[in-house]
Design a protein that fits this description.
elongated, mainly alpha
Length: 246
């Protein structure tokens, strides 16, 4: 009975209205904000070292901010739509196979149950109960044979909006120190690096707190990866300018 209930857990939880964390929203936020910080930081550091002109730095940063947000939102939309379309195509294919070659599909369910360690004396009884319910049969095949999860039809729009907004917010982080520093470009660069590093650390820390892992280690990884990527733009601009920008 305990094993049988396991198969219906998702359905029961949905019916009873129990709320669950939505990892997709967290990943969308992290994707947009991290990408916004890293890309815009790289752009404005490069522009700062090459031009030393506050207006050019601000213009370059704002242009990168809105281009980045639109681009990231579009990518989130198309990738989520593609995942949904792929899931639906595989769902229909699996449905046809259950109708056309049921014995082969039953054997695949049997393999899944064996992988879960279901005792042989219980396996056939559970298999019968599963295959008597086509919806449950399909759900198990999609989740545990193909390792695919359903994507809500509204998810593409939500992901695009969240990624786009997160990208704008993240992009503005490295710009703020330059706005306050004005023509003190070196102070702007130092402040931008510090604020961006701190924000990246907080994002990584929060990600681990909401999922699994060690928050401080996750924060440090996010910081190192993000700042290293951004410094690549700085390095290129420094070399192109002949090291004369600062």
């Amino acid at each position: 009975m305990a094993l049988r209930l396991k198969f219906w857990r998702r359905e029961v939880e949905d019916v009873t209205g129990e709320q669950h964390k939505q990892p997709g929203l967290l990943s969308d936020f992290i994707l947009g904000s991290q990408d916004g910080i890293v890309n815009v930081l790289g752009v404005i550091l490069g522009v700062a070292v090459a031009s030393q002109d506050f207006k050019i730095i601000l213009a370059g940063g704002l242009a990168a901010t809105f281009a980045e947000s639109i681009s990231m939102g579009a990518v989130a939309y198309t990738s989520t739509t593609a995942r949904r379309e792929f899931y639906l195509a595989e769902y229909e294919r699996e449905k046809r196979e259950i109708e056309e070659v049921p014995e082969q599909e039953k054997e695949e369910v049997r393999t899944i149950l064996q992988r879960w360690g279901v005792p042989s004396k219980e396996l056939e009884d559970i298999l019968v109960h599963i295959t008597m319910k086509p919806k449950a049969w399909l759900d198990i095949m999609m989740a545990h044979e193909l390792n695919l999860s359903p994507v809500d039809e509204k998810q593409a729009g939500k992901s695009a909006m969240l990624v786009g907004i997160a990208a704008i917010v993240g992009s503005l982080i490295p710009l703020l120190p330059f706005i306050f520093a004005g023509n003190a470009i070196l102070m702007g660069i130092i402040g931008s690096l510090i604020l961006s590093a701190l924000t990246l650390f907080i994002i990584g820390w929060y990600k681990a707190k909401m999922t699994v892992g060690r928050p401080h280690r996750s924060g440090l990884q996010m910081l190192v990866i993000g700042i290293s990527s951004a410094l690549a733009g700085f390095g290129v601009a420094f070399l192109v300018s002949g090291g004369k920008g600062l």
